Amino acid sequence: MSMAPSSARPGTYPVPRVFVQGMRLAGRIIAALGLVAGVTFLSLRLAPVNEITAGFLYLVAILVIATVGGLVESTVASVTAMLCFNYFFLPPVGTLTIADPRNWVALFAFLATSLTASQLSARAKRRTREAIDRQNEIEKLYSLSRALLLTDAMRPIGKQIVEQIAQAFEFPAVALYERSTDEIYRAGFDGLPAVEAALREAAVRSQFSRDERNRLVITPIRLGRQPIGSLALRGSSLSDPALQSLVNLVAIWLERALSEEAVNRAAVATRSEELKSTLLDAIAHEFKTPLTSIKAVTTDLLSDPATPLEPRQRELISIADEGADRLSTLVTQAIQLARIEGGKFQLNRGIHFPSSLISAALRQVKSLADGREIKVCIAEDLPLVSVDARLVEMVIAHLLDNALKYSPPSSPISIGVRVNEGNVVIYVMDRGPGIPQAEQSRIFDKFYRGTTEQNLKSTGMGLAIAREIIRAHGQEIQVSSKPGEGSEFSFSLPLAPRSSNQ
Fold first, then answer.
1. Which residues pair with 351 in a beta bridge?
2. Domain presence at residue 447
């Protein structure tokens, strides 16, 4: 088994941080006492002064100590200076006793002034240091935000975030947990499964934790109130506002990465859909030419009295003729669907009577009706509609064809127009087997054919084409059906401007 090399030399132990800090404080206290002793020696031996001047010099020394050092050093120096001032300058000199009661007031005034000056100086120094720290934090956050603007789209954003945080704030270790992908990105946290577990727990429970001994901070990352991940920082000395700003910055960039990914996926899907529609349109057009030739041949053979056909031959040619018709319908619908999905069709709106739209659609399906009864019910005084007549007639024809296919030959088909809440509604009703509730939300999907066997005769494109045409007019097709009771398809049409109806 191999062991990782240790950074400490054999026989040595790391020095506790508290011990190092204590030694530094002791050194500063000794230096402060040395300065007080120096002032005492100067005032007594080198340039003898009276007690007032000596007290002023002691105050100056304490202010210097408070400015350079801290509150502890200045407080010790204040007490020591008071004792020296009493011993060397207040009568009786050479003792700690005070003969004149007024000197007690002067002594305690000196002590109070020294301590107050120490505290004020230490507070000012602390605030200055805090202001400098906040300024440094703002500069680092700004540097981080600029660095994140230059992220590489080809690399994971989480990995780049931890690298930039570690570089900008000089943290020895940074780890980021992204909840949407369940990925953990780290810099300097290698081989620490406990941190991974803590990161996941912080994201799930949305809870903040701080380990002072290891100088480790783990904080959840929220977008609004929703936790989207967590962040671990080792060696962090950030203030709470700076830490929150850092977390908010990470949340913004994670959300931006998710948004860009969603946009890219949508763009790819759109391009794929456009390519598929273009390809389908091209293939369908290629089918048109041979289908036209086949249809011409079969029609000529079946209708030419000069070419007698045997019953078997006529039956086979009739099957080919019907197949050509069916395939031609399929190709036509494929072209229509491809153009609709590819955005290659535009509405050519005009002002029309609803009854004329139904009459034109009935003429289109006359050959398909094969003598079936189609009841037409059109209300009187219908308002005019503003639609693309050719496309709406295609919708009505698709709905009629659908009703003819999936209802018994003996049952009638009803089509009509009614006014409902100020809207013109066209409906097609049949008495077929109906559509199960579970399938009603799917029948308008492309190429979807129901679970019943008779639905296999359909191409699965007619209702999809009808829905897209009606949506282009700003409306929706509705279906109402119960198994065994038939179905009703209906849609509203946009009304023409009021001046056209008058």
1. 386
2. yes
Query: Tokens 């603007």 belong to which residue?
Result: 149
How far apart (Å, rounded) are the C-alpha atoms in residues 398 and 455? Answer: 14
477-482 and 374-378 as β-strands: parallel, antiparallel, unpaired?
unpaired
Q: Which of 315, 341, 367 is the last residue in one of the domains?
A: 341
CB 160 within 8 A of CB 136: no
pLDDT computed for residue 6 by the predictor? 40
Quote the number of domains for the chain.
Answer: 4
One DSSP character per residue, 151-179 reads: --TTS-HHHHHHHHHHHHHT-SEEEEEET
* 339 has pLDDT over 60: yes
Per-residue burial over 222-248, b = 16 or more CB atoms within 10 Å of its CB, e = otherwise: beeeebbbbbbbbbbebeeebbebbbe
Question: What is the C-alpha to C-alpha distance for residues 381 and 391, in angstroms, rounded to an integer?
Answer: 23
- The predicted structure's pLDDT at residue 356: 92
DSSP 198: H
Check whether the bond before 241 is cis (ω within 30° of 0): no
Domain that holds residue 176: 151-238
User: In the Cβ-directed half-sphere of 238, how many Cα atoms lie within 13 Å?
Assistant: 27
Among candidate residues 78, 102, 134, the one where a domain is terminated: 134
Closest to 300 (Cα-Cα) out of 321, 319, 327: 321
pTM over 0.85: no
Q: Which letter does DSSP use for residue 42 in this model? A: I
